[in-house]
Amino acid sequence: MVREAVATAGNTLRGIDRLAASSGPGTFTGVRIGLAFIRGLALVLDAPALGITTFQSLATQAVGAGARGDIWVVQDARRSEVYVQGFDASGRPVCEAAVMGIDAAQVRLAEVCGTIVGSGAELLQLPAGLVRSGSTGLPDFTVIARLAAGLDPDAAPPSPFYIRAPDAKAQAPLVRHEALAVAIRQVGPDHAPMLAELHAQAFEDAWDAGSLASMVDAPGRVCLLAVTSEPGVQQPCGFVLARKAADEMEILTIAVAPSMRRRGVGKALLKDLFKLARGAGSSCLFIEYADDNPAAAALYAGAGFCQTGVRIGYYQRADGTRRDAVTARLDL
Fold first, then answer.
1. CB atoms within 10 A of CB 301
2. Helix (H) or strand (E) holding 307
3. pLDDT tens digits, residue range 99-126?
4. β-bridge mates for residue 100, sequence order
5. pLDDT band of 231, cuts 50, 70, 90
6. What residue segments make up the domains of the chain, in order of their start?
7. What's the whole-model pTM score?
8. Predicted local distance difference test score (pLDDT) of residue 12
9. Which top CATH class is 182-331?
10. Residues of 120-155 as b/e, b for ≥16 C-beta within 10 angstroms?
């Protein structure tokens, strides 16, 4: 729809210097999709994004349709309620938006004069002083665009305009990730093919079996493998590789099979590594991870690691892009 609108206007996406969407009130999904989309597009185009309320849009439309006197926007809020806001003849608000029962709205509007517009107008018995606007009860995107063109972006943030608190309740999760029973054991270079397979599942720039065999076999290296210990199932599900130097230890990589994540495998590997490191006389552990890996950040923060620095552009992706490396330390 956006591409079609831009083409119809004889413009390009790069030629857009401002974006806007209805901020509501309205359908939860429609409002959120519209706002989320323009906020994402605004980041790409480096253009300001604005949210225009349904009230302001409908009031402006009523002005354009020749409304006389004050304008009262009344929107159906379901549950025998309506949203109400008043505007003067030029389309400027004269009161805050409110939600109220239909009977209360009837009383509130009994003594006013002017024009009424919106989907909630049909729910009321109009007093003598109010007439229906000839404009539609739906926001017009061209009106939203014109309004946004003349506003300070800071005065109209692209955020949902809620009058009453959302009444949706969080669902129970469809899938519960139960803790996985695993056995942790130390392995050597002969397990390199298995380690390489796990690493390929976990990372885009995976290490091959030859590289892993050399790394595991080097002096001061420790490799712990996690294997499911459920009855009748013995499946490798993750590993951690670390190297010790003097009284410090560095985690070189930790990989968990995608199907086994969020089930405590990473925590179990770290717990055994901490125990082994203390037994070997290490006073601290170091780790680094890509800044776009929130799962790793959560795992290490939960284990007690504290961020110590950032290496700019340290990781190079297969597509040529680079990501920063976050460095972290845990005192044992």
1. 12
2. strand 306-316
3. 999 999 999 998 899 999 998 888 888 8
4. 82
5. low
6. 17-155, 182-331
7. 0.51
8. 93
9. alpha beta
10. bbebbeeeeebeebebebebbbebbbebbeeeebee
